[in-house]
């Protein structure tokens, strides 16, 4: 019998794609930081600037004057929004002022 020559097998590039190997990740305990992480990725919050200390009396006095003005002008609002506005104003003022040297 005659020998038949078979054509070489074609391999399509789409069929010969190798699948990437999947490696299992190691699990970390919650709350523990890895030494491999950059400092910016730590779970602890950054302490950039300290929050200005504003007394309760300062806030209440400012909120009183905000409420008085609101009533005189006939604006809507309540004591809670007056308090929040007083805190915001006092914080802004405290951050604008340079710290006093003691």
Explain what you see.
This protein is mainly alpha-helical and 102 residues long. The chain is built from 2 helices and no strands. It has helices at residues 56-73, 79-96. Helix 1 crosses helix 2. It has a domain at 49-96. Helices cover 35% and strands 0% of the residues. The model has no long low-confidence stretch (mean pLDDT 77).
Q: State the low-pLDDT regions, or none.
A: none
Order of helices and strands: HH
Radius of gyration: 34 Å
Number of strands: 0
Q: Largest sheet, described in full?
A: none
Helicity level, as a percent range?
Answer: 25-40%
Proportion in β-strands: under 5%
Number of helices: 2
Shape: elongated
Alpha-carbon distance between the termini? 110 Å
Mean pLDDT: 77
Structural class: mainly alpha
Structure described in brief:
The chain has 102 residues and is mainly α. It has a domain at 49-96. It is built from two helices and no strands.
Which properties best describe this structure?
102 residues; mainly alpha; 2 helices; 0% strand; elongated
Topology:
Elements: H1 56-73, H2 79-96
